[in-house]
Amino acid sequence: MKTLHILRSEPTTMTQNFIQATSADGGNEQVKLYQENIDYNRLVHEIFISDRVICWW
């Protein structure tokens, strides 16, 4: 199962722990929106091919 994590801000320690816990079963992809040069076409593609998408604010 592929999980996509979309991070709007830099994750706290608790957020990182949640990401690790929800991604223990396989594929894990992270998109960091707080960094520059976001490829939004790639982001939309990743959303549609992922089994699960979690947004972190």
What does this 3D model show about the protein?
With 57 residues, the chain is an alpha/beta fold. It has helices spanning 13-22, 40-49, and strands at residues 3-7, 28-32, 52-56. The chain has one domain. The chain contains 2 helices and 3 strands; from the N terminus they run βαβαβ. It has a 3-stranded parallel beta sheet with strand order 2-1-3, sandwiched between helices. Strand 1, helix 1 (13-22) and strand 2 form a beta-alpha-beta unit. It is flat and about 30 Å long. The termini are far apart. The mean pLDDT is 91.
Using brief descriptors, characterize the structure shown.
single chain; 57 residues; alpha/beta; three-stranded parallel sheet
Task: Give a brief outline of the structure.
The protein has two helices and three strands, in the order βαβαβ. It has 57 residues and is an alpha/beta fold.
**Which structural class matches the secondary elements?**
alpha/beta
Model regions low in confidence, pLDDT < 50 over at least 5 residues: none
Number of domains: 1
| Secondary-structure element pattern, one letter each | EHEHE
Distance between the termini: 23 Å
What would the principal axes of the Cα set say about the shape? Answer: flat
Question: In which range does the helix fraction lie?
Answer: 25-40%
State the strand order across the main sheet: 2-1-3
Beta-strand content bin = 25-35%
**Could you describe the largest sheet, including whether it forms a barrel?**
3 strands, parallel
* Rg measurement, Å: 11 Å
Oligomer: single chain
How many DSSP H or I helices?
Answer: 2
Mean pLDDT comes to 91
Instruction: Work out the number of β strands.
Output: 3
